[in-house]
Specification:
- The strands form four sheets. The chain has a five-stranded mixed sheet with strand order 5-6-1-7-8. Strands 9, 10, 11, 12 and 13 form a five-stranded antiparallel sheet that branches.
- It contains 17 helices and 16 strands.
- The N and C termini lie far apart (66 Å).
């Protein structure tokens, strides 16, 4: 057994993946600042040429055009991105079957024991895979080799783009000492702020806390798992099932007539969220990120992207996130004609991201309510049960078609914001 790698875990992360695929498919885009997300009105992926001009993910296209007039803005081609992703998975699988298809642009691989089987050090094996990926796909990868998933993900980010970083057991301290706690996989945002307030503002300081400290501060299993992996243990096992060909689900609709009403437009968006979440549940999938947009009568887009701490296919949870940021895309007095939502980074229901606050258990009980909703809607027809936030869109649709509206009652006994139509 290799003393520095009792388990050898590799993380492959495509550099500016969507934009890189676009440049690979169209040689005229190479060397140019390419931005994907034209259909949403906000940047979802940027080539490194675009990043050098100060453009960032989520930036509105109107601002991008001002800041970088030469920017090439393209509509996202998720089918092509998915094809490239599955090529990536297939290449890595020629070396090991222990692959976790973590997302459309990254994966983990367990290559434990390949050093003896192939007669070469792990570092050479990983470089061999990296070279094959880059030669075959025409895209560079940030790659990390470490004793577990948490450290491998830290390593792959360390020298982007196109870098290869190794974190053996004996070098963990060197990597963790200068690393912000916010840079640890799953410890960004509120989680990192919470730890920083408790004196663990670097990955090393958190790793050095004694076990009793975690207990005293009521940290659950998810925190403890990260803490153990930062100390070199292998805790987070790879999820080996394939994600399948679909990594995102979109639902978008044009509504007539166009409207300036905030409540009506919000309701139209809610209807799209319900449809997208229903599709995800039908495939036993949850989203790790959401994006939503509004399109004006002048065909301009305004969009927001949100990364989720806990994956979900529950429309009440999705609408909760959207409600907090809806006014970032809605402007009073502007005439809107369409709305849409995309559930991104889909994973199977059996796979879960880091559960830092016990959110998975709490939200799972709410999610079970939608098993009832799905059963009722399958038996009695779509939208027999629906979100209360979708009520205005649904009743307006009935009236616009000349259908006599039926009495609507709210069913708070199932979930808040649910309504039932008879």
């Amino acid at each position: 057994m290799n003393a520095n790698f009792p388990r050898a875990i590799v993380h492959f992360d495509g550099d500016a993946f969507f934009a890189s695929v676009e440049q690979m498919m169209n040689y005229k885009l190479r060397g140019k600042p390419v931005i994907t997300g034209g259909e949403r009105g906000a940047a979802t992926s940027l080539s490194y040429e675009a990043k050098k001009r100060g453009i960032h993910r989520g930036m509105r296209m109107s601002e991008i055009r001002i800041r970088c007039p030469e920017a090439v803005i393209v509509t996202s081609d998720y089918r092509s991105y998915g094809i490239y992703a599955h090529r990536m998975y297939s290449i890595v699988r020629t070396y090991t079957e222990k692959i976790e298809e973590y997302s459309i642009d990254e994966c983990f691989a367990d290559i434990t024991g390949l050093d003896e089987k192939m007669g070469m050090p792990y570092e050479e094996i990983v470089m061999k895979i990296k070279d094959e990926l880059e030669d075959s796909l025409g895209i560079t990868f940030g790659v990390g080799l470490a004793p577990n998933k948490t450290l491998a993900k830290i390593a792959s980010k360390a020298n982007k783009p196109a870098g290869f970083t190794v974190i053996p057991l004996e070098k963990i301290k060197d990597f963790l000492e200068p690393l912000s706690i916010h840079s640890v996989w799953g410890l960004g945002g509120a989680s990192g702020q919470h730890l920083a307030k408790l004196g663990a503002d670097t990955a090393y300081l958190f790793a050095q806390k004694p076990d009793i400290w975690l207990t005293e501060h009521h940290f659950g299993k998810a925190y403890r798992d990260v803490w153990l992996e930062l100390n070199g243990h292998f805790i987070k096992k790879l999820t080996l099932e394939s994600l399948g060909p679909t990594d995102s689900i979109m639902s978008t609709r044009t509504f007539t007539p166009p409207s300036v009403s905030r409540s009506y437009i919000f309701s139209q968006l809610s209807k799209n969220v319900e449809r997208a979440c229903e599709k995800a549940r039908n495939h036993n999938q949850k989203a790790r990120g959401i994006s939503f947009f509004l399109k004006t009568q002048e065909f301009t887009y305004h969009a927001v992207s949100i990364e989720l701490t806990v994956p979900t296919a529950d429309p009440t949870q999705v609408m909760g996130f959207i409600d907090k940021r809806f006014d970032e895309v809605y402007a009073e007095g502007v005439l809107y004609r369409a709305s849409g939502v995309t559930l991104r980074g889909l994973i199977s229901n059996e796979s879960h991201m880091l559960d830092l606050f016990g959110e998975i258990q709490e939200l799972a009980s709410k999610g079970r309510s939608f098993q009832v909703v799905d059963t009722v809607n399958k038996k009695y027809g779509r939208q027999t049960m629906f979100l209360g936030s979708s009520l205005q869109a649904l009743t307006t649709k009935k009236l616009s078609k000349g259908v006599k509206s039926s009495p609507i009652q709210k069913k708070t006994m199932i979930l808040p914001c649910l309504g039932t139509v008879y």
